[in-house]
# Entry
Amino acid sequence: MYIETINGPEDVKKLSIDQLPALAEEMRAALLKRASIHGGHFGPNFGIVEATIAMHYVFESPKDKMVFDVSHQVYPHKMLTGRKEAYLSEEHYDDVSGYSNPTESVHDHFTVGHTSTSVSLACGLAKARDLKQEAGNVIAIIGDGSLSGGEALEGLDYAAELGGNLIIVINDNDMSIAENHGGLYQNLKLLRETNGQADCNLFKAMGLDYLYVDHGNDVADLIQAFQKVKDIDHPIVVHINTLKGKGYAPAEQHKENWHFSGPFHIETGEPLYEMTEEDYSDISVNYLLKKMKEDPTVVAITSGTPTVMGFTEDKRQEAGKQFVDVGIAEETAVALASGIAANGGKPVYGVYSTFVQRTYDQISQDLCINSNPATIVTFWGSVFGMNDVTHLGLYDISMMANIPNLVYLAPTTKEEYLAMLDWSIEQTDYPVAIKLPGGSVISDGKEVTKDFSKLNTYEVTRHGSRVAILGLGTFYGLGNEVAESLKKENDLDATVINPYYITGLDTKLLESLKKDHDIVITIEDGMLDGGFGEKIARFYGDSDLKVLNFGVRKEFPDRYDLNELLKENHLTKEQIVADIQALL
Amino acid sequence: MYIETINGPEDVKKLSIDQLPALAEEMRAALLKRASIHGGHFGPNFGIVEATIAMHYVFESPKDKMVFDVSHQVYPHKMLTGRKEAYLSEEHYDDVSGYSNPTESVHDHFTVGHTSTSVSLACGLAKARDLKQEAGNVIAIIGDGSLSGGEALEGLDYAAELGGNLIIVINDNDMSIAENHGGLYQNLKLLRETNGQADCNLFKAMGLDYLYVDHGNDVADLIQAFQKVKDIDHPIVVHINTLKGKGYAPAEQHKENWHFSGPFHIETGEPLYEMTEEDYSDISVNYLLKKMKEDPTVVAITSGTPTVMGFTEDKRQEAGKQFVDVGIAEETAVALASGIAANGGKPVYGVYSTFVQRTYDQISQDLCINSNPATIVTFWGSVFGMNDVTHLGLYDISMMANIPNLVYLAPTTKEEYLAMLDWSIEQTDYPVAIKLPGGSVISDGKEVTKDFSKLNTYEVTRHGSRVAILGLGTFYGLGNEVAESLKKENDLDATVINPYYITGLDTKLLESLKKDHDIVITIEDGMLDGGFGEKIARFYGDSDLKVLNFGVRKEFPDRYDLNELLKENHLTKEQIVADIQALL
# Structure
């Protein structure tokens, strides 16, 4: 096996060009086996095997620096840069992260997990190189799907001005996670169809030099192209035409499903584990499709991740014009929602907590200053969400809940979520966001009669004294468990409160607690800094009540162990009870 | 005078095309007089007078909806939509805001002040129109300078997919606030030079239909063009070639200086009031130019507002390759800074507080997860900054100070600022941001010997007991005044503390205060929610100390009166002292 001889890029260069296709096949076989057992990003990596080999054959990493966008497609690069064991040996599968990672290797320059950043980051590496008057190539590798993001387009525009060497490899597999959306993809198609010869050329229109490689999975062609642009003295785009999922028939045929996969049977592509539990994606799409049929002005919006709200291909067809995928373009998604709401439509934008960060200014300016009644639903904003450092869902409260005019709601059950969503869609006064709880869906079957238009009205769900527990969203249940323990251990009847509203204080209720309570505790599913609990602490700052805030401390944990994280942050029932008892 | 007869768009239509140039001249004369007395955005409005007349001549506002990007260029539109008195009568100059404003008129659809939003917002209006199966044109008017922003490029890309009617007017005056930066401007130039005929066309490459109007200040040509695209059934770009500052010689010649102007002598263009006071822009540019000469890896970065850090044209030339203007592209500015720092350069990105909002995700992901040692300096993040609702500087603490890994510093004097800046540039461990204080520059001439690498170490500058005052940044001086008053009125020696660090707690010092203090107060220059004071309140939540937080409540005030705002938020010495006395 060739792959077993590769301990770094220098070993790739020892092979002849004739041997490289065999290396590619070996890498693909290893990737397939690993994915079938371990899961991970699939399609993006299968398409870029040959390009990665060719780059390491031609360029001299780490002197020449490669920046992989999103870094979903960084597995082949890791295999060739001293980390092959993590792909060849099952016991080492977890030795590496799923993204580029400077702590793993000198061949990785950034920890990257959000899209559309590579060109601008690479411009920075190149600029520093030139300021230091050093030599070397800087190569940004970006998938076509990432091109629609604002930062990528800004970066392409700026790159033309940079002056020195910069090579931008456009890995064009004609797919985003789902199909691409946006006018620029017509131009990529035109360029593919004309072997890169069409006069109308997005990259040239951005001021960039351009080279097209039609056989983007042919390692010899790629080597030739990279040799041509190596040490070039100005920025150039190398547009390579690749096949997403290349080499595994199910993935070539069903590209969207195979962008990311869990463990599966290699022979059939069928998943090893059936996901049967109802989740908030199913709940959202079922509600929205029904609502759309009743009201033609209801429209669901996604920014390149349609299944976050459950809109698989068949559901998208069912929704028709009432479903919009703007492509990876979160800023436009929020502005679009604001515009639709301003003109009497009823938009619902569903987005992962980690990606809603990409649109702070649009939420503040385009939406909230204008008080337009759009709805944003944030998914996986929870310690129970993704645990890669680049995809954490711990920050949406501090980011969003401090934006004026926004009503940010935290349901604790499926029923509350649907009641909030329905209220939000029908009301016309406020921009509203809903933070879905983490963990398994809780459904208590109770009818929700609360009028959410009475802003910032919390609900006492268990009446007691001395200790009041505000359990926000995900952690409302934990709040109840704490109350149970206090009853059992201290014969103390604690008050339990469902706050519902992250963005405002129920000052009347909070004031009333002063009468017969000594301690107020808050539990929230996210970072403490800038969070919900701190507002409660501020409210009681000049009173005799003691306040304890529970949540996650400010940091960027990477691939954390959930139970450890909870323990470290005193987010277990036992710890919270003990902390309260210490104060009693 | 024609302008006196115009009470709405319907009155524009009553004039003959021959009469419209005279109307344009009258409007320009009124704009000139108003600007000379009142100040405001100048160049952008002077260039778009004819286009605005032509649009109102051809389209039927408000059924047809115009969305002005940034809305710096909205004055002529306001003159033609029932608000002419605000431009003709000195006593009514303040009746209108400087931006489009739905509360003023049904002809305005959004409050807009940040760039690059119009296309995406207009897409939303158009989408809602189509969902409601209504008719009407939607027109986005965007300046060439705004095109480099990510949201604008995302919007152009998405617009091609929208399907129905959308008209995107590109007001191309070949200028941003300063000169344009980015490769796409070469393409605009090519299009201007070829009368729109060049095959390589950015807008067509984005999938859009395209029409070019060479005489963008010729009202008859414009009317013809708009008539051609009115009621079109798909999105189209109308690219109009205009002259920034058109009709006023000093403004035509010095476009950058005349983007915005204070009051001036009409005859000479000389400003009425001399600005002689040293400000943080001067301080920054003087320091940085000196530093650049000592160290070729120091590089200053701006995103389209070079003078925020004092880089006027001559200073930009002096800095040479050590000054980078990425154009209006804040996301790329931060990513670039991160990349430069990752490769051993020393980047300093200067940005207005209100615009740093546009790059939350890049600060979090591209910069802070990677812990690259770039420096961001935020200007005008203060109640003493801009007071238009779209340009407030009240939110940067809640946005930035809760991002893990970032060290956000609050200097209280010029000397502290320079010491922090110098430390930040030379250290290699942390991403650092510096929040400049508002109001007049305070310089005490004291040498700053503090070692800022000892993170989160506050300084007690006045030793006392019972009451401790944490005066952050701008309001450190107010903290001292409060202490003086307490001494005078209550014979109480309060402790005064300069926290320096917004992003972390000096737990040792805070703990020590418990010994002999009863009350801790915080004063910060920004919104309370998610701010510095709440972290202090959380820290003392389980203790007997009382905490009072002073800052601005969460809202979007518009064109506020500074003294009223301070009073409403208890940010005067008298109120703070009274609040403390009530607790003593």
About this structure: The longest strand of chain A covers residues 517-527.
